[in-house]
Structures are given as structure tokens and as C-alpha cells.
Design goal:
Rna Polymerase Sigma Factor, Chain: A; single chain; elongated; mainly alpha
Length: 97
């Protein structure tokens, strides 16, 4: 599985958009589930999942060890969820004042 990721990442970095689609298909469900657990809202989780994969696509060339892709992806996903929760908290706080 990790070797598959390395090959996919190499293909993506070489410009293969189909390889990125394959990577998204492979991880979309578990990342969406993570976002859903963190936010409790399926619609928000879908938006966050899209944002996560957008960031992955933009920053994939910064990944130094492609064999660590899954861990890197989960860090990005968790940070995106935390960012959303912070925004929600600050909006809620501002509205209550």
C-alpha cells in the first residue's frame, strides 16, 4: 500500500492528473469520516474534505518522504478540522457578545 502511494505521488508530481484522482478515491472516505467525527456535520465535512485534498495537491511537492504520505495527510486533515473549529468558536463567541 505504501509503495502504491509512492508510485502515485511520483506520477502526480510528473503531471499525471489521473494519479491524483486515484489518490483522492483511495483516501476520500476515511478523510471525510475523520472530518465528520471532528465537526459533527456531513456538509461541513464534505467542504473540509475538499479543502484538505486541495491543500494536498498544492503541497505535495513539499512532502519529503512519500512513504509517509498517510501520516502527512492525516496531519493536514486534523489541522484543517482544527482551523474550522476555531473559526466556528470565534464566530460563536463574537455573536454571543
Amino acid at each position: 500500500m505504501k509503495n502504491d502511494n509512492v508510485e502515485l505521488i511520483q506520477s502526480i508530481l510528473a503531471g499525471d492528473d489521473n494519479a491524483f484522482s486515484s489518490l483522492v478515491e483511495k483516501y476520500q472516505a476515511p478523510i471525510h469520516e475523520l472530518a465528520l467525527r471532528k465537526t459533527g456535520d456531513a456538509r461541513i465535512a464534505e467542504d473540509i474534505t475538499q479543502d484538505i485534498f486541495l491543500k494536498v495537491h498544492q503541497k505535495l511537492d513539499m512532502l519529503e518522504k512519500p512513504q509517509n504520505f498517510e501520516s502527512w495527510l492525516h496531519v493536514i486533515a486534523t489541522r484543517c478540522c482544527i482551523e474550522w473549529l476555531r473559526k466556528k468558536y470565534f464566530v460563536t463567541e463574537a455573536q454571543s457578545k
